[in-house]
Amino acid sequence: MGERFTAAPDDLYVRPTAETKGFLHRLEAEVDELWSFVRQKENRQWVWIAMVATTRQVIAFPGGDRGGQSAIALWEQIPTVYQEQSTF
């Protein structure tokens, strides 16, 4: 799984859709997480997913644990245009 994440392009081919072309009032992204264990219950693997709220297009999906470094990895993969308009 880690090899596939590493091999994925940095921009994940994020392209404007018909809904987002032209003047944008606001870009929205949602973040969620999912986990499973691999072979043993103690070996939990997490995937963080950031997606465009209106189109459900995935814009970032780092793997890792549930710690701060994984959250930073997610933030760094989110395209700059979304980072610049972020609110929490």
Give the SSE map:
Elements: H1 2-7, E1 29-37, E2 44-52, E3 58-60, E4 63-64, H2 68-77, H3 80-83
Antiparallel strand pairs: 1-2, 2-3, 2-4
Describe the protein's architecture and organization.
- This protein is α+β, with helices and mostly antiparallel strands and 88 residues long.
- It has one domain.
- The chain is built from three helices and four strands.
- The chain has helices at residues 2-7, 68-77, 80-83, and strands at residues 29-37, 44-52, 58-60, 63-64.
- Strands 1, 2, 3 and 4 form a four-stranded antiparallel beta sheet that branches.
- β1 and β2 (44-52) form a beta hairpin.
- It starts with a helix and ends in a 5-residue tail after the last helix.
- The mean pLDDT is 79.
List the defining traits of the structure above.
88 residues, four-stranded antiparallel beta sheet, elongated
